[in-house]
Specification:
26 helices, 634 residues, mainly alpha, globular
């Protein structure tokens, strides 16, 4: 689902709960007199507004029901029914889901049919799964764990009927409400009301709340339009909208400061680890997005996340040394920019490595964040440089072209520091060499914690490449946690996968090895990118592992090894297969995002599981999101 639609649904449901003074918002609603009927788009807007506002009553009632009804007595009785002596999983798994379905078939056939058709699976599995996780203890049977935590439980005449009654009430008060709130119809309504708001008022609801079109008094316009037919909705909704705007103004300014601090940390890592592998101790100064887009081993360096790179207000143009620009956010409230010059007007971008590109600087960098739309609540701009100090000033919304020599003397206010700010000292080349040599010596002596040393070497990136032979020894012979640290370090400091890749793949494919060590080796092999493309077939074999985490790691690595994605169909089947598994809540979001990135080619595989009782609802949701994205692209 498009980010703006997600935000709008959140706006209409989550943030509205405390805004409504009383229930029954539709009690004062009714059709407007014929003579007062607004034009068609405006009329449709008021109908949708009242409809969506009414849903927030249901959302609040759902939360109230959950707070009133403790589910742990149900868990205790459910375990007793399963088997008092059997050591059942401490999480909601196939055994529990199958027995739940058995009970429903016996006592509530219509509900059993819905569960078998996949109408309830994701919500029931997710909710009960979380609660099972909470009663989990590493020792004893599931029932014993439940007894220790939740004794005493009042007796009931018929445990089976009591359990089925609880499930039925849970479905009625929670599952059915969530299906309605998160369903396709609600997504469509949220998207439509945003579109209608732009048509009727000249700005969308979420767009206005984020600070765009401040010249439009949207609350007054909505209030005037909706007051005739839905006065209570008009009053409560517009009050909420005004609060939302104020909250977002404060949030966006805090977020701008945190973005600059994030860029500062990325620059310090860039200088220390040399991710661009140009052999020069330098900072990136060409733009913001390059910290993400700079091509390393055939893929983005990703020193900053895609969403931060997408906020670059002045990104570099396409270049063979850069990957494509990440997708921009729907609404960019603050824009990030590299400050191009120092206080004297000298460019901060220089050609430090003889590449012919003035993209770096050995000693300095500077960034600014300024409002995309200058207005009430969003007037301040922010700057930061290699000292880590964040400064604030009203620049009229204009980006900063020169970093001031004395910010305080030019009326900039100091508003924060990052990671020690002025206390951070950049080491000279001689000091860096001495620090790395000391780590290598300690590792060679074998009298120190190899895991800790490997992690410290990884922080130096390719500058510590002379430690590769010793780390290979650790990877082959030491304790598993030291071996895992060595694998991760090798991926960051080695200049090529030669001699390292066979060892990593050998460990990853060895079923006798620890699963987490195998997973780390798969991740490390993937970090070598296309240079390790020879391991692609091995990754396919690893992706058939019994371990879900190991399978997921292999699927991630395949994208890095093969940017052209020749194994797309294989990966699609892999993520769909994981989506079918129960109790994989930590992988649910990744399955969804990975399949969304694959796009329309993933739809046929998803359609095959659309009727599954557990994964069907999630599959249908992903299909809708893929089709929406394809429609937006035209």
């Amino acid at each position: 689902m498009k980010a703006a639609v997600k935000s709008l649904i959140l706006l209409l449901f989550a943030l509205l709960l405390p805004a409504c003074g009383s229930r029954g918002s539709g009690q004062q609603s009714g059709p407007a007199p014929e003579s007062q009927s607004p034009p068609a788009p405006a009329a449709r807007f008021t109908v949708l507004l009242a409809d969506l506002w009414g849903m927030q009553d249901k959302a609040r009632e759902m939360e109230e029901w959950q707070s009133r009804n403790d589910m742990f007595p149900f868990l205790r009785r459910f375990h007793e029914l399963l088997d008092e002596t059997q050591d059942l999983p401490g999480v909601f798994d196939d055994i529990h889901a199958d027995y739940m379905l058995k009970l429903l078939r016996k006592h509530d056939a219509p509900l059993a049919d819905r569960m078998e058709k996949g109408e309830l699976g994701r919500f029931v599995n997710y909710h009960f799964g979380l609660c099972w996780d909470q009663v989990y203890k590493p020792e004893g049977s599931a029932l014993q764990r439940c007894r220790r935590e939740y004794d005493p439980v009042p007796p009931v005449a018929d445990k089976e009927k009591d359990c089925v009654a609880y499930i039925a009430e849970f479905v009625r008060h929670v599952v059915d409400v969530r299906i309605e709130l998160e369903g396709e119809a609600t997504e469509d309504k949220a998207a439509e009301i945003e579109t209608l708001s732009k048509e009727v008022f000249g700005t969308g609801l979420e767009e206005w709340a984020l600070g765009f079109h401040p010249e439009i008094d949207l609350p007054a316009k909505v209030r005037a339009l909706a007051a005739v037919s839905h006065p209570k909705v008009a009053q409560d909704f517009t009050a909420m909208l005004e609060r939302r705007s104020k909250t977002m103004a404060e949030y966006s300014q805090d977020r701008a400061k945190s973005r600059l601090q994030e860029l500062f940390r990325a620059e310090m890592d860039f200088r220390r680890t040399d991710p661009d592998r140009n052999g020069v101790t330098d900072f990136w100064t060409a733009d913001v997005s390059g910290l993400n887009r700079l091509k390393v081993r055939g893929r983005p360096a990703a020193c900053i996340p895609d969403d931060v790179a997408g906020e670059d207000g002045s990104p570099l143009k396409d270049d063979p040394a850069l990957c494509p620009m990440p997708n921009l956010a729907d609404y960019r409230v603050y824009l990030l920019r590299a400050v191009p010059a120092d206080s004297e007007g000298k460019p901060l971008g220089t050609d430090t490595d003889g590449s012919g590109r003035a993209w770096r600087n050995r000693a300095r960098f500077a960034f600014c964040a300024h409002p995309a739309v200058y207005g009430v609540g969003r007037k301040n701009s922010y700057i930061i440089d290699q000292t880590g100090v964040v400064w604030m000033k009203d620049t009229g919304g204009k980006p900063v072209d020169r970093f001031p020599a004395d910010p305080g003397g030019e009326q900039w206010a100091r508003v924060g520091e990052t990671g020690g700010g002025d206390d951070i000292r950049m080491l000279s080349a001689e000091e860096e060499k001495a620090a790395i040599d000391d780590l290598v010596t300690r590792l060679d002596e074998g009298r120190y914690d190899a895991q800790e040393i490997a992690c410290e070497l990884a922080d130096w990136g390719v500058r510590a490449s002379r430690a590769v032979p010793k780390l290979l020894e650790v990877l082959k012979t030491s304790e598993k946690w030291e071996r895992a640290a060595a694998a991760g370090a090798l991926a960051r400091i080695a200049t090529s996968p030669g001699g390292i890749l066979p060892v990593l793949i050998g460990i990853a494919k060895d079923e006798k090895e620890d699963v987490q060590l195998r997973r780390t080796c798969v991740e490390a092999a993937g970090e070598f990118g296309p240079e390790a493309a020879a391991a692609l077939e091995d990754m396919k074999a690893i992706a058939a592992s019994e371990s879900f985490d190991l399978r997921a790691e292999a699927l991630r690595a395949m994208v890095k090894l093969d940017p052209a994605d020749g194994a797309r169909d294989f990966r699609t089947e892999g993520w769909v297969g994981l989506l079918l598994k129960k109790n994989l809540h930590d992988l649910d979001d990744e399955c969804e995002s990975s399949l969304l990135r694959i796009g329309p080619p993933a739809v046929p595989a998803l359609e095959k599981i659309a009727g599954d009782r557990i994964a069907g609802e999630a599959a249908r949701k992903i299909i809708r999101a893929i089709r929406r994205a394809a429609k937006r692209r035209g």
